[in-house]
Each structure stands twice: as C-alpha cells, then as structure tokens.
Amino acid sequence: MIHEQVRSPRARRHDANLGRILDAATQVVAEGGLEALSMSKLAAAVDYTPGALYRYVESKDALLARLVERILADVRADLVAAQAALPARTGALARVGALVRTYRDFARREPHRFGLLAVTMADPRVLLADPAHAGTAAAAVIAALEPLAAVLTAAAAAGQLAPGDAVERTLCLFTMLHGVLQLPKLARNAPQHLDIDRLALAGTRALLVGWGASPRHVARALEELP
C-alpha cells in the first residue's frame, strides 16, 4: 500500500506563509497595478521584515513566477471543472468551445490576475529577467493547457480534425484567445468593430476549420455558447 508523504508541521507552516505572501502580492497588484508591487511594500503588507520575506521568495522575479504558476494552476482547475461538468455525450469540438468560454470567463472574473499573466506572457523578460523563472512560467502554461490539448487530440482521433501537433494547436488557440481578451479597453472606444465575444468565437472557428473541421460541425458546436 502506497502512503502519501506526510508533510511536517514546519513544511505546512512554510506553505501557509507562502500562500499568505502570494495572496498579499495579488492584492497589491489588484489595488495598484504591477508598478505598485515591490518587495518592501509586500513585506510591510504581510508584517515581515524584507529579510524574512526573502526566506520565502528569493527575488521579485521568483515572486512573479510563483504568482504566474498559481494563476495558471487556477486556470487549469477551471478547465478541468468545466470538462467534468459537461454531459458525457458532448463532442470534442463542443468541448473545445466550452474551454474557450471557460478561459474567457476567467479573464472577466479575474482581470488583475489575467493582466499579470498577459504582461508576463507578452514578454517574460519584462517581469521575469531570470531565464530560469521565465522557463518555469512557460512550463506552467503548457501544464495548465493540458485539458485543451486533450480535447484537440480527441477531436483528431475522432476524425473531426485532421492529424496534427496537439501542443502546437493548443498554443495557437490559446494565444489567439489570450490576445483577443486583452482588448476590452480598446473595444469600449470602438464597440462596432471590437466585439470581444464575437472575435473569440470567430478566431476559434477559423482555427478549427483550418485544422480540418467541417464548418457545419464547428458552427453546431459553438452556436450554443453564451
């Protein structure tokens, strides 16, 4: 019988304290934007000395990498939950649409966390100067999107898409959607041209058809998305 490793009280305290630090950092960003986040301000927010804070995160780059990993873990949890909530008979293309909707909903519900993710992904060097931390964040992106890769693989296996690289397709779909979801401020000034929901669906439709899906099947799969 395999037993789960039991973490020591010290390790659990460390994890709890790190969680509190990340919560506080998220709150600082929510209230003042990324430019408001500094290690000294964060230390004050959690009632630590800067030296004590560095026992949990060795640099601002490391802190931001932790925040990105945490955001992406929550994105993955949302995607997994959305998949689990679908009826078993739901087709693979409809599942792609459901996951697109799930990520759209995350961006609307968590605008500050989405904004942090957007800036980091646009150019990791802006926030994550250390290549090791940028690499960690990139790996977390791939792991978070595994549910989307799985449904794209299933769609190809079912003949609804042509054979292709599921990871490449996942990243193409995700980056298209991620880019569209960064347009709300611009959309407010040109709503007749920049309907975010319409653009997200149009981009999803174009990619799926480009990968070999029947336009009719794609339209049917996406038509019920709110």
Task: Describe the 3D structure.
The chain has helices spanning 9-32, 39-45, 50-53, 60-85, 92-109, 111-122, 124-127, 131-144, 146-157, 166-180, 184-189, 196-210, 215-222. With 226 residues, it is mostly helical. The protein has two domains: 1-57, Arc Repressor Mutant, subunit A (Orthogonal Bundle); 60-222, Orthogonal Bundle (Tetracycline Repressor, domain 2). α4 crosses α5 (92-109), α4 (60-85) runs parallel beside α8 (131-144) and α5 packs across α13 (215-222). It starts with 8 loop residues before the first helix and ends with a helix. 29% of the residues are buried. The model has no long low-confidence stretch (mean pLDDT 84).
In short:
By secondary structure, the chain is an all-alpha fold.
Beta-strand level of the residues, as a percent range? under 5%
User: Cα-atom Rg, whole angstroms?
Assistant: 20 Å
**In DSSP terms, counting alpha (H) and pi (I) runs of 4 or more, how many helices?**
13
Low-pLDDT parts are none
CATH superfamily of the largest domain: Tetracycline Repressor, domain 2
The overall strand count is 0
CATH classification class of the largest domain: Mainly Alpha
Distance between the termini: 47 Å
The main sheet comes to: none
